[in-house]
Amino acid sequence: MLKKVFMKGEVVPSSNIFELHKKSTEKIKASSNGTPKTVVDIGDTSFPRRYIDYSYLASAAKIYDISPNIHDYVCIPVPIVTAEIPNRNSQAFEFKDLISFDPTVGRMLYQTFIGKPTHIDHKNSILNQAKGINLDAALVPMKKYKLVKIFVLAAFDRSKDIELVGNILDNKRNCYSMGALAQMFQCSICKGLLGPSIERTCTCFGTDYQDLSTLGSVSNGKLHYHIARDFNFIEISNVSSPADVGARSNNIM
């Protein structure tokens, strides 16, 4: 069986990212016809309004031990990943990979957030301890900054953890972090590969995908980081102490 590495973290701190987030808030409105759909409007003409199908919620609720009733949730649009930009662990996701199609899940890779659980502080090893579910994921171009971000509509269940949801509503816990599994990484310096299930071709001495403290240096003007390959997103966590000022959201629905 192929082994995968758990990844967590957010985008590196940046005042520009924070400004980007403030200028790209998302408005969610419940549909008026009572069907399990939600209208999404990010306020950017490049991102169309659309409906979100959450008809799978009742089935997912049995696995995650969360409410099957959409009205039990608070929903938060979270700018969780910036394509091409290394996160606090010196790991990055390339845009071409985010839009690649994975036939095993029938989605593009950025969409693998959808239907995955929400947790607290990456306590994700037990599915029925989930705090909610991710209802949607969208790629949003930030033209001013020449960046593309993944926004995820993270939903947290009031009936599962009233204290957590209360803190989210009171803006006491407004920080988030993604969780992913990756089979391998590519070095930004030598372009070699390394990971738990492949023969290492990375020639950078002293670096290891399991010891992220070996990354982050600059060599000949190039930042040393790892690019995730063969990955999928598995959760979003509400966290108390993030490294990224951009992975925050006060826009509660």
Based on the model shown, name its key terms:
single chain; 253 residues; mainly beta; nine-stranded mixed beta sheet; 16 strands
Kindly describe this structure:
With 253 residues, the chain is mainly β. It has one domain. It is 11% helix and 36% strand. It has four helices and 16 strands. It has helices spanning 15-22, 57-64, 95-98, 162-169; strands at 5-9, 27-30, 38-41, 50-51, 73-82, 91-92, 101-102, 107-108, 117-120, 132-142, 147-157, 175-187, 193-194, 218-219, 222-223, 226-239. The strands form four sheets. Strands 1, 5, 6, 9, 10, 11, 12, 13 and 16 form a nine-stranded mixed beta sheet that branches. Strands 2-3-4 form a three-stranded antiparallel beta sheet, with no helix packed on it. A hairpin with a 7-residue loop joins β2 (27-30) and β3 (38-41). The longest helix is centred in the N-terminal third of the chain and has 8 residues, at 15-22. It is globular, with a radius of gyration of 18 Å. It starts with a strand and ends in a 14-residue tail after the last strand.
Beta strands, count:
16
Q: From the alpha-carbon coordinates, what is the Rg to the nearest angstrom?
A: 18 Å
Summarize the main sheet: 9 strands, mixed
Structural class: mainly beta
Order of helices and strands: EHEEEHEEHEEEEEHEEEEE
Count of separate DSSP helical elements: 4
Anisotropy-based shape: globular
C-alpha termini separation:
41 Å
Helix content: 10-25%
Number of domains: 1
Q: Could you tell me the strand content as a percent range?
A: 35-45%
Poorly predicted parts? 11-48
Average pLDDT works out at 82
